[in-house]
User: Fold this.
Amino acid sequence: MFKRTRFQNGHLKRESRKTGPDVWIFRWRETAADGHRVNRKVVVGTVEQHKTESAANKAVAAFRIDINNETPLASLRPFSVQELVEHYMAKELAENSKKAYSTSAVYKVYLKSWILPRWGSYRIQDVKTVAVEEWLGSLSLTNGTKAKLRNIMSALFRHAMRNEWIDKNPISLVRQSAKREQAPEILDVQEIQSLLSELQEPYRTMVFLAAATGLRVSELLALKWSDINFESLEISLNRAVVHQVIGNLKTEASRKPIPVAPELAESLLSLRLRSAYNQPEDWVFASPETGGKQPFWPENLLRRHIRPAAKRVGIGKRIGWHTFRHSYATLLKANGEDVKTVQESLRHANSRITLDTYTQATTPAKRHAQSKVVRMILPKERESRAETGT
Assistant:
């Protein structure tokens, strides 16, 4: 009678060493080429790296799946979304992966906060497009957040296909359905002006900079004064900060310097002159609560200052940091800027074939485009003072 190979969990144990901290050892048995069963083991890490058995088990989860995936007939066992997520995080979102830390951190939050609670116990094959769409429709989230959830779900199942756990993507229509989403909420010029007039420093300059450059919040809060050249009117982007962890920028295109309109440079210089943290290596938006050692937390800024200010001036839209980036793109398009200038102003890494037919936007073109947006945003009385020199 045909006997199916058993799916094994292996055995995790903490062991002491003659020198150094204790380590976690994972042991399992596998079938050798001659058909005999042999014992295998691997060091998962030290107790300093994985302080609890639960943490060590999470670290070994992807390794355990790989072992069983190589076992004869293991493919007959249906994998759960929980196992898929663990394998995906260990392989695709690890520190040594190609994804930027900011991207990995965001993916992990989405996976743990929304995808796992809803789909973790499901078999991969049982997740269907219609069910995913119904689930997304029931969530009180912005369209942008729902689109991100779709993209991550799709990435998960592509990962499953690459590992030959499934033959086809059971939610292959998810990415197509994302095109039907409404455009993300944006702020018009009057709303940005009203919001700026209600904000105190340094929050006003934060929002002004975000709305006038399209910087991602991870880039905005990672700025140091040494990154701003007030003579050449340019900002150099050298790092990103996510959850107070300094990492690389999202893409190579993100490293391109951005122009700074004179009016925007004036606001930044005024902030620097008033700031207690104004040395070249200080954060531009340093948090007083940490003695300037760390920048502000973006979520706290939205909750405590920006959203309340928006509510006070009658803005009912749900504002997130990406709102300002979308608003900047919309204002550029409204001003009639060519597609290539918009693309490079936002520093997008990928472009469609049609975009590649445009010549590369020059810095003067990008500076001119940004200046028009800045002058749209600035309150009229401030613009008048700038023109008269008073």
